[in-house]
Structures are given as C-alpha cells and as structure tokens.
Amino acid sequence: MNGRRILWASALLLLAFSCKQSSTKGRFLPPSTGSVNSLMVVMDNELWRGAIGDKVRELFASPSLSLMPQQPILSLTQIPPQVFRGATAHSRSVLLVEQDSITVAHVKSNVYAQPQKVAVVKGTNYDELVGGLEKIANKAISSFKHVELTEAQKRFTRSLNKETALQETFGITMTIPSAYRVGKQEENFVWLDRQIPKGNMNIIVYSMPNNSFSNDSTFVRDIIAMRDSIGKKYIPGPDDGTFMITENAFAPYLFPAEIGGLKGAEARGIWEIKGYPMAGPFLTYILNDEAHDRKLVIEGFTFAPNTQKRDYMFELEAILKTIGIKREDG
Q1: DSSP state, 68?
Q2: If we measure between CA atoms, which residue out of 169, 275, 293, 272 comes closest to residue 224?
Q3: Spatial CA neighbour of 318 closest among 102, 146, 172, 113
Q4: Which residues of 62-81 are buried (b: 16+ CB within 10 A; e: fewer)?
Q5: Which residues pair with 145 in a beta bridge?
Q6: pLDDT of res. 295
Q7: Residue 50: how many other CB atoms lie within 10 Å
Q8: Whole-angstrom Cα distance, residue 24 to residue 38?
C-alpha cells in the first residue's frame, strides 16, 4: 500500500512539474514597447540619486560616437521597483539594479514581454553593485542594441522600397523603407535618400578593387582618401566646386565588422562639404566580397542641422545591416 502511495505521489509531482514547464514555455507574453534606444532603469530612488546612479549614467548613457550635438547611446528613464508593473514592465530594454542578499549580473530574454532584454544586477553593497554594472555593461548594451535593430528591421518590412537599382548595379539586396528613393544610379554608384523635417538621410553604395587597403599602417588614411574621391566625383555641395569630404579635424573611429556573411571594417566619423559650412555624421562599412573580387562599400550619412541625429543614424545602421549578397552558385 505504501508503495502504491509513493508511486501515486510521484506521478502527481511529475504531472504538476510537467504542466508548470509547459505553462512557462507556452505562456503568453505581450508585445514589448518603448522608444528607439530607450532604457527603463528600475532601481530605488535613493540609489539613482547616488553613486550607483552615477555609475549607471556613466556606463549606459555615455556619448554616442560622431554625433553633433552629442547624444547618449541610450536615453534613460528611471522608476522605483514598486512602479515596475503592468505596461512599464513591457519595455523592450530594461536594467534592474537592486541591493540584495545575493550577487548576480546577467541578461535575460523575454521576461515580461517579447522581444525584450532585461539586464539584472544585484549585490549586497556598493562595490558589488558597481562591479556587476561594469561587468555586464558592454554585453547588456550590445543586447539592447540587437533587439532594437531587429525590431527596426521588422518595421521596415511594412512598407518597402521596391526599386531594383542595388540589384542591377551590385547584385545585392537591402531591406529599405519606401520613404527612400533612388536619386542617382551610375555604373559603380547608387545613392538613395529620404527627406526628413530639417534635412535628409542618405545611403550610398559603391565598390573598390579587391586589393584596396592592403597596407594596415595606412588604412585610416586610405579610407579618408577613398571617401573624399567618391565625394568629389558623385556628391556635390550647394556651390560650384564644393563636394563632400571627410571632416579633417579628427580621424574616423574604426571597428571590425561582419554583415551579410562578409567580414570587413566599420568606420564612424563626420563628413563635411569642402568650401561650404555643412556637416554631419556618417557610418561606413567596407566589406570583403571575395566572391565578386571587390571591396563593397555601403554608407549611411545624415544632414540635419541643429537636430539630434542618433536615431536617424540608428535607422541607417539597421538598413545597412540587412544587406544580402547574391552568390555565384545561387
């Protein structure tokens, strides 16, 4: 009899556990919300006003690269834990900082909504909280940016540009919103642009010989020379003899990159018009397209004087990162 009871109890426990697992995996999650590049910071008001809040602002709201005027990489909104419920818990990107009896620093996915990234930092004292924030900051920011890029690219598909200039000229595709139009198409150059309230957003594509940039010691200088020559040939300024160049006050920031299966380099900097007071940020990817024996260059740049440009450049980055290359065996 005791054996039967044990077996029956075990079966009930197993059934309950299975139902709980199934419920967790199949539970409904509402769609996440939030403005582009915004971060919901959940922490006590006292922590936010003190040194821990300063560390959060230092790590998660540092200035974005190559923007005029400067903007933080993320726009922070702080709320205390007791307010973090209902709609506020559906924010797409969340940072939860809490003084607790345990020490943790990790990033979770789709906790309260979907898609969502929640970075959790807990510690028993100031040093543990600061250590957790410093440990997780880069990973968390990368996770927040990834979910934002993915959501932006999904929104693009609602109304797509159906022009075929990129396919015809370079054998590539991009997921580009219909607000962009082809303004120039030549043998080795395509320019698309979109009008915005105080200016325009632009995408240009061209190729370089495959043996370009063979000397690492002159890589930055070669990128500047390339951009300046393309600007002189294809991107005129308002007055005769003016054209786009790379702003010469400082060198572009460089990072390794991989897009559409192609490895290469990312450059971020400031463009200007030679001989005319116009300037703005640019983002350039130089990709090694060995299958087509070329360096493929894709770039986004914005002109919007006296305007915050972070989200404009973010949209351009999201578009550029949808590039697809037609394979010879495809």
Answers
A1: S
A2: 272
A3: 146
A4: eebbbbeeebbbbbbebbee
A5: none
A6: 97
A7: 12
A8: 28
Three-state secondary structure call for residue 128: helix
Q: Which two tokens stand for residue 42?
A: 């959940």
The CA distances from residue 126 to 52, 61, 122, 132, 139, in Å, are 7, 20, 10, 10, 21
Dihedral, CA of residue 35, residue 36, residue 39 and residue 45, to nearest 10:
-40
What type of residue sits at position 226? Answer: M
- The owner of tokens 């009008």 is 195
- Single out the residue of 183, 179, 186, 187 nearest to residue 162, CA to CA: 179
Does residue 181 contact residue 194 with C-beta atoms inside 8 Å?
yes
The label of the residue with tokens 């726009």 reads 75
If one counts every other C-beta atom within 10 angstroms of the C-beta of residue 131, the result is 15
| pLDDT for position 327 | 65
Would you tell me how many other CB atoms lie within 10 Å of the CB of residue 164?
A: 11
Alpha-carbon span 162 to 152, nearest angstrom? 18
Rounded Cα distance, 230 and 318, in Å: 23
* pLDDT score of 120 more than 90: yes
Amino acid at 79: I
Q: What are phi and psi of 248, to 5 degrees?
A: -95, 5
CB neighbours of residue 279 within 10 Å:
16
Domains and CATH numbers, the chain: 38-156 (3.30.379), 165-325 (3.40.1000.10)
Measured at the alpha carbon of residue 328, what is the angle toward residues 325 and 330, in degrees to the nearest 5?
80
- Average pLDDT over every residue of 239-262: 94
pLDDT at residue 19 in the model? 44
Helices (H), the chain: 2-26, 45-49, 51-60, 126-156, 165-170, 219-234, 310-320
Residue 281, pLDDT above cutoff 60: yes
Single-letter amino acid code for the residue at 210: N
When the pLDDT of each residue in the chain is averaged and rounded to a whole number, the result is 91
pLDDT given for residue 26 in this prediction:
62
pTM given for the model: 0.89
For β-strands 189-196 and 199-209, DSSP reports them as antiparallel
